[in-house]
Amino acid sequence: MKTKFSRLLMLLIAFVVHTSFAQEKTITGTVSAEGLPLPGVNILIKGTTSGTQTDFDGNYSIQASPGQILVFTYIGMTTMEMEVGEGNSINVSMTEDAQALDEVIIVGYGTQSKRKLTDNVAKLTSDDISEIPTPGLQNSLSGKAAGVQVTQTNGKVEGGINIRIRGVASIGAGAEPLYVLDGVPLINDNESSTDAPTNPLITLSSNEIESIDILKDASASAIYGSRGANGVVLITTKKGKQGKGTFALNMSHGISRPTNKREWLNADEYIELFTEAAINTYGQEEGTARAEGMFDDLSSGTDWRNREVSTDWQDLALQNGYVTDADLSLSGGNEKTNYFFSGAYHDTKGIIRGNEMERVTARVNLTHQLSDKFRTGANISFSRTEIDRIANDNAFVTPMQAIAQSPLSPAFLDNGDPNPSTLYSNFLLQDKHAFFNTVIRRVTGRAFGEYQFLPFLKFNSDFGYDLYYQTEDSYTGRLAPFQSTNGEAFVSSLGTESYVFSNYLTFTKNIADIHDIEVVAGMEYNNSNRRFESVTGIEFPSDDFQSISSAAEITGGGGERSRNTFLSYFARATYSLHDKYLFKASIRRDGSSRFGKDKQFGTFSSLSAGWILSEENFLAGFDALSFLKLRASWGQTGNANIGNYAWWSLYEAISYNQRPGISPIQAENPFLTWEKVEQYDIGLEYGFWNNRISGEIDYYVKDSDGLILENPLPMTSGRDFITRNVGLIQNKGVEFVLNTRNIVKDDFTWNTSINLSKNKNEVKELPDDGADIITGENIIREGKPLNAFYLIEYAGVDPDNGDALFYTNTTNPDGSLSKETTTNPNEANRIVTGQPFADWIGGLTNTILYKGIDFSFTFQGEWGASIYNAGGVYQSANGDYWDNQSRDQLRRWQQPGDITDVPQARLFGSNGVTQSTRYLQEADFIRLRNLTLGYTLPESAIEKIGLSKLRVYFTGFNVLTITGYDGYDPEARSDAGSTAAGRGIDFYSAPAASTYSIGFNINF
Questions:
Q1: Any residues with CB less than 8 A from the CB of 905 and at least 6 apart, and which?
Q2: Which of 179, 196, 176, 198 is nearest to 187 (CA)?
Q3: Is 147 in contact with 637 (CB distance < 8 Å)?
Q4: Does 32 fall in a domain?
Q5: Integer angstrom CA distances of residue 974 from 22, 249, 264, 875
Q6: Distance in angstroms (rounded) separating the CA atoms of residues 888 and 901
Q7: CATH of the domain at 362
Q8: Is 658 helix (H, G, I), strand (E, B) or coil?
Q9: Smaller CB count within 10 Å for the chain: N or C?
Q10: What is the secondary structure of 930-984 as a DSSP string?
Q11: Inter-axis angle of helices 284-298 and 267-282, to 10 degrees?
């Protein structure tokens, strides 16, 4: 009987267990907030310890039974409870907790809630960067993030972009941040074969970008170790979301014009000034004869006396351009698979004659939940960018140097051909008989797998790839300037590919609703290979044959291969206690082939902490206070932006009497290692009145030690230089961010965001006992800003005789500088005056939504920088040579007693035209960077035609500039040479483009 009872009991237990398991099923879904997926949401079955988390795309999967309650919790969001019913899918839209500041921040190898973040990270969404009509993605960041300065070298469509995060941290190594696209470090090397740099990231299209997170302090960027010294820019592309498929189409077209044009002398003014200049030098009779003889030559047979010609060369060099953008995307998903497909077309006709760009891009992003534990996916994109380029700013054939031509010279002959008999070579001949074309093809991709071993432990394996393939083709015909052969062609081919393999574990655990712990640990391997080849040929049958195969003689060729590798181990741990005491630590061990065999590995670490004071009881009585967090961080990062073989003993191939040989060029330095940046940051985040007012205040100190410089060696060494770690630079500053929700109503909202930052740059130590490093008009000196201007000081004009005066600046016995004046610039000493980098940068953005109308604008400003117009000795030289002059030279000194800053006009008189502070000006400006006005039609008006959204808009870029700078543009810098832009030099540099577009957005 007992045995039967036992058997019956076992059968009953088995039935109950079976029934229980039979009821349990897989529940899947997506958790979002304001339409965006929320990664890292904790999901628990109420009353149990069983749970999971949402993945990067906000998806989750959990085993539960009907009737059980799923509890969704996320810092900064209101906790939600959902009962399991008959269905297998539960989607949740979480709402913001009015008592918390929060948004999802992308950090290295994961995400984090901003509320619990102990780092300084600036986040921009697709709304911040979309619909801005500019070829370069980086331009759309201007004025949007505190401490982040974005400057395009000049107005060329492909012009190089300089981004500085908290100042310039290097002298000899690169100063650009590390760009990471969906976890893949991007190739960001300027590969232009001319002096003029190109923007390597011009291949990216803003339509595919979901968000950009800028890691500013060392605690945030230390997880990237040896490449995080200049900050890290994390770019995340769009992904599909669970739900009905959505088709989106965006199109716009706009016109562009130069932001500024300068005033130059017309024919009347030119004749007046240069006749006077010649008479002042040679006397009335001879001077008049010399001037008229030159006018005869310049006018090319036209009647200059009757002003038959008054050519506006500026209008020939600059033109109105256009910008066309079109993109479409298809996205959606279900509980298993999410997808995003996009394609985009961009076409720009630049504001400089002969400068154009066309780009096509395509992207596919897929994720798939293979099982409850295993998720996989892939991202891949392709772009093709074709650029019609012009010469660099220091070339006579560049359009901008046409302003030096005399207005007496006709631009074209009677038959329509460009006039070859001008003062300088006519750029129109280059425009007609030559071309320089660059095509960049780029493929980026990432494949990944994620396995959830346990609810609190997952493993990620990622493989990323970036291919940058560039071809250059140029042909200079026999009628082009400076061409002494029957045509010359140049072709080059460059391919750089980089692949990165990452594996890491993520441990996430909440203990007793008090302790939150996350640990990420893994390794990464990065390999990059570069190959370059070029060929030059001359003597072509005619200009109809322009390929290199038609050259009768190959006169030059070159090629090189190089590679570098990184091997890294990293770990990061975050811990929060009671959701108000926050701690973080990270470490990365990097090995790189770029550094000496004895210094190939370096360790970079960081520590940070935060305290959410608003959660403390002693502040409970402050009803106006919504959020208050104090945070502090310390960290070390490195700079590896140098050549692949800087530490090697290098030789170059040479030939002598057609015999091959080798010659040493670089000395070996096995101890060469990373530049190390150590940074301290303390910050305060605040929110008042349910976060109607919020913001941040930060103070930082950033020391760059072991700067990498090429030190010249004596000729007796047999080598030109050795690369060494020497010197120290310090950047320190403050940042302010203020966000206000001025009006919050159902049909009317108005938000304002203001950022302002100050940075002080100072050179602390230099090699060779602090010896100055002087390059042209710039100096690197201890105790001064990097690349400060070093010039003799202009003292104005002697009112008695029109002589230009300079301060001697000799040292007095008491150590002060003498302000005696001299007319001889060789008797004047140079002084440090002005700097190329701004002290203050800021931005102001307003966004207004009223019913279906949206209106936004961003002002950007910079203050404290100087700009040196190196072309001023030709352009504004009071008639020293025959170059056309800026119109301000008409206020030259003419008679005793005249008070003016322009010396007497003297042809070939060198009266005040030496390089001096006469051509140094403040570069302060405020610019209305972008403005957008749009209208979205009501759903009731468009649903009948199958649309879910129809919006039309107008947008402007570089709409207005307020500045005291007399040149073309306070942001423009010379692109002639690799360092000119960083030295604050303006030399015939084109202004930026001002663009106005209209467009529409359609969603199905």
A1: 273, 274, 276, 277, 280, 878, 879, 889, 892, 911
A2: 179
A3: no
A4: no
A5: 73, 38, 20, 15
A6: 10
A7: 2.40.170.20
A8: coil
A9: N
A10: EEEEEEE--HHHHGGGT-SEEEEEEEEEEEEEEE---SS-TT----SSSSTGGGT
A11: 140
User: CA 109, 112, 114, 115 torsion: positive or negative?
Assistant: negative
Is 800 inside any structural domain?
Answer: no
Q: Which residue has 């154009």 as its token pair?
A: 356
β-pair partners for 474: 436, 490
Name the token pair of 789: 């201007």
For the four alpha carbons of 175, 179, 183 and 184, in that order, the dihedral sign comes to negative
Structural domain boundaries, residue 779? 137-240+247-259+319-793+834-870+919-1003
Non-local CB neighbours of 662 within 8 Å, separated by 6+ positions: 651, 652, 653, 654
Q: What is the pLDDT of residues 253-297, one digit of tens each?
A: 999 999 999 999 999 999 999 999 999 999 999 999 999 999 999
Q: What is the separation of C-alpha 794 from the centre of its chain, rounded to a whole number of angstroms? A: 36
13 phi and psi angles, rounded to 5 deg: -60, -45
Nearest by Cα to 532 from 554, 565, 559: 559
Give me the count of residues in the chain.
1004
CB distance 787 to 983 below 8 Å: yes
Q: Is residue 450 part of a domain?
A: yes
Q: Which residues on adjacent β-strands are paired with residue 492? A: 472, 534
Q: 10 Å Cβ neighbour count for 125?
A: 15
Low-confidence ranges of the chain (pLDDT < 70): 1-23, 34-35, 75-76, 96-102, 978-981
Distance of alpha carbon 719 from alpha carbon 713, whole angstroms: 7
- Residue whose C-alpha is closest to residue 26's, from 104, 114, 109, 87: 87
Cβ atoms 137, 346 nearer than 8 A: no
Q: What are phi and psi of 771, to 5 degrees?
A: -65, 140
Chain mean position to CA 915: 31
Q: Specify whether the CB–CB gap between 92 and 84 falls below 8 A.
A: no
**pTM higher than 0.90 for the full model?**
no
| 932's tokens | 């957008």
Q: From CA 834, how far away is CA 983, in angstroms rounded?
A: 11
- CB neighbours of 906 closer than 8 A, spacing ≥ 6? 277, 280, 281, 878, 879, 880
Strand order across the 659-667 sheet: 650-656, 659-667, 721-725, 708-712
Structure tokens at 147: 């401490």
User: How many C-beta atoms lie closer than 10 Å to residue 413's C-beta?
Assistant: 13
**pLDDT value at residue 152:** 85
The number of folded domains in the chain is: 1
Q: Residue 854 is which amino acid?
A: D
Alpha carbon distance 150, 138 (integer Å): 7
Residues 959 and 928 sit within 8 Å (Cβ to Cβ):
yes
The pair of three-digit structure tokens given for residue 557, joined into one six-digit string: 């060729």
Cβ atoms 438, 159 nearer than 8 A: no
The pLDDT value recorded for residue 6 is 46
